[in-house]
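fwd from M.: "can u put these together and see what the complex looks like"

so here's what she sent:
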Amino acid sequence: MIHAAFLIPILPLAGFAVLFSLGRRLGNPLAGWLATAMVAASFVVTVIVFVALFQQAPAHREFTQSWFTWFGAGRLRVGAGILVDPLSMTMAAFITGVSSLIHLYSIGYMKHDEQFPKFFTYLNLFVFAMLMLVLADNFVLSFFGWEGVGVCSYFLIAFWFERDEAASAGKKAMIFNRIGDAGFLVALFLIFERTGSFEYTTVFSRLGHVGTPSLVAIALLLFLGAVGKSAQIPLFPWLADAMAGPTPVSALIHAATMVTAGVYLMCRINPILHLTPDAAHVIAWVGAVTAFVGATSACAQNDIKKVLAYSTVSQLGYMFLAAGSGAYVAAIFLMLTHAFYKALLFLGSGSVIHAMDEDQDIKNMGGLARLMPITGVTFLIGWFSIAGVPPFSGFWSKGDVLQNAWAVTPALWVIGAVSALLTAYYMGREYFLVFLGERRWTEARPVADGHGKELGHGLHPHDPSWHMSLPLVVLATLAALGGFIDLPFHPNLVFLERWLDPVVGPSLLQTHFSVGQEWLFSVVDAVIAVTGVLVAASVWRASSSRPALEPRFLFMAWFVDRGEDRLVARTSTALANFTATVVESRIVDGAVNGVADLTRWSGERLRRIQSGYVRNYALGLVAGLVVLVAYVLVRVGS
Amino acid sequence: MTASAFGPILTAGITGGQQAFPFLTALVLVPAGAAVLVMLLPRSATWAIRAAGMAATLAVLGIAAAVLDQFQAGFGGYQMVSEHPWIAPLGISWTLGVDGISLFLVLMSAVLFPVALAGATARENPKSFTAWVLFLEAACLGSFLSIDVLLFFLFFEATLVPVYFLIAGWGHERRGYAATKFFLYTFAASAFMLVGIVSLVFIHQGQTGVTTFDIRELASTHLSGTADIVLFLSFTAAFAVKAPVFPFHTWSPDAYGESPAAGSVLLAGVMAKLGTYGIIRFDLGLFPHAVVVLAPLLLTLGVVGIIYGGIVAAVQHDLKRLVAYSSLAHLGFIVVGLFALTGESLSGAVLQMVNHGIYTAALFLLIAMIYRRRGTFAIPKLKGLQSSAPVLAAVFTVVMLASIGVPGLNGFVGEFLILSGTFLTHRWWAVAATGGVVVAAAYFLWAYQRVFHGKAEPVTGEAPFAEMTWREALVLAPLVVLIVALGVYPQPVLERITPSVDALVLHVEQAAHPRIPLAGQPVSGTLAARTSTAYSSSVTLQLGTGGERVPATRATGRETKGART
C-alpha cells in the first residue's frame, strides 16, 4: 500500500485542476465540498500509507518513489519523486488532517464571499505544494513546494485584493520569504558543488567528504530560508501583516502548516546539524530570542488575530529552539500540538470575528462565552493547551522543548521558561477580554465596514454553523489529548520518539536526565503555566485597559518592522530612484547621447568641407576602419 | 566539405545523407517569399494580407516542428546542413545547419512570430507592417541557422531594417528618437564585428591558404593572444549591444517602450537572443581562449546587469520600460551562464533564452492589452484592474511568476541551472546573482499591486476595464502552455540542448588548456568539463560513458583551495 503514496499530493492537485477550470461553474458551496473531499481523500490515503509504513520493521521504513527526471544538464540531475519515511508521513498526516478540517470550516466561513470558488482553488493548490515540500525526495523538489506554498500564501493573504493593506501584506510576505529563499538557493548550489547530488539520502551519505566550513554554511543558509518562511528574527514582521488574509488562511498557512516548513527543513537536515553544533547553537538562540520577542509582543496587541500571529512567531521560536538543541522529536511534537491548538484558536477567533461582524479589536468585545458556548469552551481548551496547563497537549510538548534546552545550556531554558509564562498570560488576556468580563459592545452598534458585507444589521453573537463548529470540536479534542503521543517518564511511552527514530536518531536526553529530574521539570512547567493563567486572571478579569501592561514598544513589536522599513525599504527606494534618475539617465545613457551629440557637432563642422551626405561619410569611415584594422590584425596575427 | 572542428560528429551519419527536403532553407525563404508576396498585394486587401502573413508564419512553425521531429537527440554537431556555394571566390556560402543550441531558438521564434502577428497586428497600413514582420522573421531565422559567418552577419544586420521601420512607422510618441537610437547604436556596434570577421578570415587564409567563412573551419584558426582578445572584443561589441548587456543597454528601454506591441514582443523575445546566441556560437566557438581570459569581466557585467536592471526597473512608471529593465536583468543571467563555461550553466543559459523569449513576449502582449483598453502604459494611471478582469490578471500573474523564477514555471529551471553551474566555477558571482532573485520579486510584485490590486477608481466617461477576449486568450494560450510545460517537464528540451553544449564546453576547455589530451573526438552525451566536489577524492580523467568527468585545471586549482576539510 505504500505505493499509493503518490496519490497523497496528486489528489489535491487534481482538485486544484478541476476547480481552476470549472470552479465558477461548480459555484458555492459545491466547489468547497469538492476541495474538502479531495483533501480528505488525501488524508485517508495518508493514513493507509502511514499504517503500511508502520507495519514495516523500523529499519526499513524508508521508501523512495521516483516519478521522472525533472531537469538535468551537465552532471546535475533533479528528479521528481517522493520519499516515504516516518518524518514525511508524520508531516503529511497532520497537514492533510488539519487541512481537511480547515477546508470544512471554510465552507461556512467563506459562505458569503463572491470569490468562494477561487478561495478553494488556491487552498487545494496550497495543500499540494505543502505536501510536495514535505514528501519530496530531494532538496530542489522541496524548494518547489517551498516556493509553491509561498506563492499560495501570497495569493491568499492578498485574497481581498481591493483592500490596500491586504495587497501590501501579500507582497510583503512574498518579498520577506524571497530573502530567505536566496539563502536556500545558495545552500542548494553549495550542496551540489560539494556532494554532486540533491537527493536527501545521497547527500546525507556523502557528508563525510564535505568539510565543516561548507557544512556550517549549508546549515546556516538553509536556516536563513527557514527564518524567512517561519517568521523568525529578523524576518518576522510579514506574519503579523499576513493576518489581513481570511482567517482560515491564517489558521492553515500562517499557523499550522506553511510557517512550520522551516522547522521541518531543520529536522530533515538533522544529519547536517548533527555535524555542525555551532550552526545548531545559532538556530537554538535565534529560536529562543524569537520566542521571547514574539511572546512579549503578543502581550500588547489589541487585534484578536495579531495576538495569535505573534504567538505563532513565539511558538515557532520554540520549535527552532528544540531543533537547534538537537531535539528534533520535540520540535516535531510541538509542531503537531501547535498545529492543533493554534488552528483551533484561529478558527475560534474566526467565529468571534464573524459574530462581531468583522470587528477584530478585543477591546470592543467581552462576555461572549455565554453567547457562544462551543467557541468559548474550545477556545478555553486552546488557551490551556498553549499555556501548558497539564494535561493539555502543550504541557507535554513545550515541556519536552524546555528540558532539551536546559540540556544545551540553562540560559536557553530561562528564556524559554519566561516566554512560557508570558504565553499563558497573553492568551489569558485575550480570553478574558473576548469571552469573559462585561460586554463592551452593543447590539445596535453601527457595524464596521468589512469587505463588502451587508452592513447595518445589529449584533447577535452566536455559535457558527456545524461546518465551523465541528472542526472546533475535533481540534479541541486533539489539542487536549494530543500530548499523549509522546509522554515522558517511561521509555515505552515515547511513541513519537520511537516512530521518528529512524530519521532523526535517538534523543540525546535518555541518558541526560533521571526520571526524578523529568518529574521536577514537569512540576516546574506546570507551576509556570498555572502562574501565567492566574496572573492573567487577576489582571484582566475586571478591567479592559492597563496601559502600563501594554507599552507601545511591545505593541509595535519592538519596532522591528518600522526599523526595517526605515532602514531597508526606504534606503533601497532612495537608492533605486538615484540609480534610475542619475546613474542611468545622466551617466550611462548620457554617455550615449553625448557621443551622438559629439558626432552631430563634428558633422556640422565637417559639412563645410564634405558637403555630402552624412551616411556616405559614415560608410566611408566604416570601410576605411575595416581595412585598416584588418590589416593591423593580420600583421599581428601571423 | 573539408575537415572541421565539429566534423567528426557531423559526418558520423547524423544527417543520413542529403535531406529530401531542404527544411532549413525553407525556414528562411518561406517568410522572405511571403514578405515579397505581401508587398505585391494591393493595399486595400487587408484580409488577404493578414491571411498571407498568418499562413506564412504558421507554415514556418510547421517546418520548424518538422525540423524538431527530424532532429536527432544525442548528437552535438550540426544537423540537416544545407550547403550551397554563393560567392565562391571569397569562400562565402549559403550554409545553414541546426544544432541543440539553435534548435529551440528557431522553434521559439517560429512560435512568437505568428503570436505577435495575431496578438498585436497594426491597424494602419497592415500591408507594410506584415511585410516587415515577415522579413524580420526570415532575417532572425537566417541568423540562428547560418554556419557561414558572413551569412550570419548579413542576416544579423538585416534584422535592423524591419525593426527600424516597425518602430518608426507604428511606434508611440517618441518613436523617431527611439528608432534612430536603436539603429545607430546597434549598427555602430556591428561595424566592429564586421572588422573582426574580415580579419579572422584573412588570418585563417594566411594560415591555411583557404578563404572561407565557415565557422566550423574558422574555429581551428590559431590566434595570437592579442589578436584573440581584440577579435573577441570586436564580436562581443555587437552582441553586447544587441542583447543588451550592461552598460550597452540604454537603447533598449526606448526601443521597447516606443515600439508597437509586435515590435516589443519580437525585439525582446527574439532579437535579444541574437546577441546571446552570437556569444555562444561565435565567441565561444571562435575565441575560446579569449573567452576564458575575459570571462570574469563579462560575468561581472552580467551580474551588474542583474542587480542594476532590477533596481532601475523598480522605479519605472512605464510598464514597458519596466519590462525592458527586467529584460536587462534576465539577459544578465544568461550572460552569466554563458561565461561561467560549465555544462550546467551553458545549458541553462540556452534554455533560459527560450524561456525568456516566451514569458517576455507574453508580458508585452498583456501590456498591449492593457494599453488597448486604457491607452496608457503609466503605472500610476492604472489601478484595481483585477476586479473587472480576473482572467487577464490571472494570466498576468502566471507570466509574472514565471519571470520571477518560481519553480514549476519555466523561468526557474533555466535560472537554477545557470546559477548552480556558475557556482561551480565562479562562486561569488553566482551568490551576487542570486540576490537578483529577491530584487525581481520586489519590483514585479510592487508593480502588480499598483496595477491590479486595490479598488478601481471609475473615471466618468470611461468604460470599465474589459475582461480578456476569447481572441486574446487564444493568442496567449500557447505561451502560457509553454510556460507551464517547460517548467514542469523541460527534460526533452534539455536532452537536445546538452550534447551540443557539452561539445562546446569541451572545445573551450581544450583551447584554453591544450594540455588536456584529446580522447579521439568530442563525444556526445553527458560530460561535465570539470572535476568538482570534494567527495571525489581523486582527480579522474575519463571521457565517454563511464566516469563522465573531465578535469579542468581551472577547477582543480580552486578545488584545492575549497577543500579545506
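replying to her w this: Chain B touches chain A through 92 residues (CB under 8 Å).
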